[in-house]
Amino acid sequence: MPTPRRAALPPRLASAEPGQGVTLADVALAAKVSLATASRVFSHPQLVREATAQRVHEAARRLSFRPNLLGAKLRAQRTRIVGVMLPTLDNAVFAECWRGIEESAMAAGYSLMLVTSNYEPARERERVEYLLRHRVDGMVLTVADASNSTVLDQLDRESVPYVLAYNQVSRDAAGHGRHSVSVDNQTSACEGVNALIAAGHRRIAVISGAFTASDRARQRFAGYADAMRDHGLPIREPVNLPSHTASNAPQIQALMAQPDAPTAFFCTNDLLAIGVISDLKRLGLRVPRDVSVLGYDGIALGALVEPPLATVVQPNADIGTQAITQLLHRLDVGSAGADGNATLLPHALRIEGTVSAPAVPA
Amino acid sequence: MPTPRRAALPPRLASAEPGQGVTLADVALAAKVSLATASRVFSHPQLVREATAQRVHEAARRLSFRPNLLGAKLRAQRTRIVGVMLPTLDNAVFAECWRGIEESAMAAGYSLMLVTSNYEPARERERVEYLLRHRVDGMVLTVADASNSTVLDQLDRESVPYVLAYNQVSRDAAGHGRHSVSVDNQTSACEGVNALIAAGHRRIAVISGAFTASDRARQRFAGYADAMRDHGLPIREPVNLPSHTASNAPQIQALMAQPDAPTAFFCTNDLLAIGVISDLKRLGLRVPRDVSVLGYDGIALGALVEPPLATVVQPNADIGTQAITQLLHRLDVGSAGADGNATLLPHALRIEGTVSAPAVPA
DNA sequence: TTGAAAGCGCTAACAC
DNA sequence: GTGTTAGCGCTTTCAA
Q: Which residues form the HTH lacI-type domain (chains A, B) (predicted)?
């Protein structure tokens, strides 16, 4: 029979589970110190004498004391919880990013609360409100469109610290104070398309996710346009595909049936690229022999398929790590007033596998 | 200048942000009701007169009141937070599962806290302790090995409600009271391999993740063994690959160089299968013409590649949905004593694409 | 270095 | 229906 704690505790379930119901007060009592001292042992060890701390630790161990973070958070008016909002985990880009975030946050003693927005602004608002109710100290998020986002406006208004991941805020936005961590979408996309051009392609089409759902897609298309313009090549209208997972053979087929069918595709993300490659294969076309395909993202999976996916690589885990690190730094140091800075992480080009010279040099 | 709230609030930062610092007491004051009534308006609306409720809502709106969940949770001794521990999000299986979990939990008014264990028992223990400190009401988790898991033992000991996802607890474990939601790994794997055999294959090899890191892998191998034994075919030692992402061409090559090289591979997960297919292609082998490959998981990506990945499909989002639903039901109804029940969800076979008859009928 | 005491924001008896 | 009151578990002045 477990030692009965406390004389009588009517509304509390008399649990036999260790840790359950054992409070800091119990520990203090057992260690014959005050509640305050017991608390200090855990939050400000340097303020308490070594011997005393030992006694408290010992008592805590004996009672299987497990701190109730709720009490601490409520009182401290700081939750040490960071809210994370990502569009979806179904795209490996964000799953990889999460890994970076989780690792760094845990190491820094912060907790996380993850929500996904599914690229929908309405859901973004709902989820952000949810995070706010949990009194997260700050947020790391990727929004559909950073340049026109009601959630970001709200966060700014309420001065909730946050760092954007993947969304690249324009440098000249003049003091909106938005922090972001991303690659340079436009420049990197431009370089990718340049590589396509260097390989001999002149008829290059863009397959993209919905522009409204992703400012990245827009920026990457702009990079494509830059490259084409720089080389005096015709800029084609992008093909906006709604979803990653559906087969879009019809659209691709229509494109390939035209007399000036593209010899290369630039897809604004890797998942799209993988789908396009399959669609091309189903049309009897070989990649890269008949058509080249360039993706964007650098998800691990791309290196796993054969031929490996040519792509513009962004450091996904790093983006997460950097974003959370910057946020935690701001939270800890409290440089809330610091002006927004857009961190640009280096990207890389992986031009191989699904990209080669066009069959018939244009 | 914003209307100053409260006479003086020394330690509190006089913030101009809406919602920040506005408490239920402020709302009660503004609505000229007691704190208790204000609280009831939100938690037990049926206990308060309509007109009063209106006044409170109005005041809340005017003051931009945002409930502080921390206070509620601390007092209520129920957090309405569920901890979720998954091995990794890098495998789409779990990312898809998360979607199901998030959707259902949000709809039911529960919050989530996600952690990943990376298949490491040590990290499982650490992360579970972390969740426990947050006083989650229960957990949905996938552990490396459910039949030998210190975290599960701990959870049982502390009678923390939980439901396993993917881990399939043996039915005859006699009252350990473990709840789980999964497909029948062994049976489904057996069926998959049977399909391979039906297609004409007799030399079938298994490529698997580390058995120690996944009880599912072991169960699926057992299913393979069943099928082979049933047909009087030789059971081969499994090839255990450490990671999903690395190329394992050497091992595959060695296998294929043998005189009795397999004509088909059964991979215990889809990611592995995709890697194996690439490795085979790099060896100059065509899939499925020269070698067939069967995966396991049914991740969306598998249908996206060409040829589509033949696989044993499990309902990933459903596994998440069911697991969380069962847990929430237990939390709400409180049938804590109910004996563990292993829910088996239906699987499906997708035999096409990467599986065909062997080139040289054995 | 330690203790006493006052809450953080909210809910839930218990009265009226 | 509504108000009064007593905390949930913890941190943190302020004194000693």
A: 22-76
- CATH number given to A185-315: 3.40.50.2300
**Angstroms from B4 CA to nearest CA on chain A:** 16
The C-alpha atoms of residue A333 and residue A327 are separated, in whole angstroms, by 10
Give the chain A residue nearest B160 (alpha carbons). A17
Q: Which of A116-130, A287-301, B322-336 is predicted least confidently?
A: B322-336
Total Cβ atoms within 10 A of residue B27: 26
Task: Give A247's contacts in chain B (Cβ within 8 Å).
Answer: 304
pTM (2 d.p.) = 0.91
Instruction: Report helix angle B24-31 to B35-43, nearest 10.
Output: 110
The pairing of strands B310-313 and B264-267 is unpaired
CA-nearest residue to A67 within chain B is B133
- At A258 the three-state DSSP class reads coil
Beta carbons of B17 and A160 less than 8 Å apart: yes
> CB of A318 within 8 A of CB of A182?
no
B202: which 2 tokens? 């007799």
Amino acid A6: pLDDT: 31
- Fold classification of B24-75 (topology level): 434 Repressor (Amino-terminal Domain) (1.10.260)
Q: Cis bond leading into A288, ω under 30°? A: yes
Distance between CA atoms of residues B225 and B227, nearest Å: 5
Distance between CA atoms of B227 and B204, rounded to whole angstroms?
Answer: 11
Predicted confidence band at A248 (pLDDT cuts at 50, 70, 90)?
confident
pLDDT at A176: 57
Q: Which residues contact A106 (CB under 8 A, 6 or more apart)?
A: B115, B130
Give CATH superfamily name and number for A81-183+316-344: Response regulator (3.40.50.2300)
Residue the block writes with tokens 């792509």: A311
DSSP per position, B214-281:
-HHHHHHHHHHHHHHHHTTPPPPPPEE-S-SSS--HHHHHHHHHSTT--SEEEESSHHHHHHHHHHHH
What is residue B322's predicted lDDT score, i.e. its pLDDT? 98
| Axis-axis angle for helices A92-107, A316-333 (nearest 10) | 40
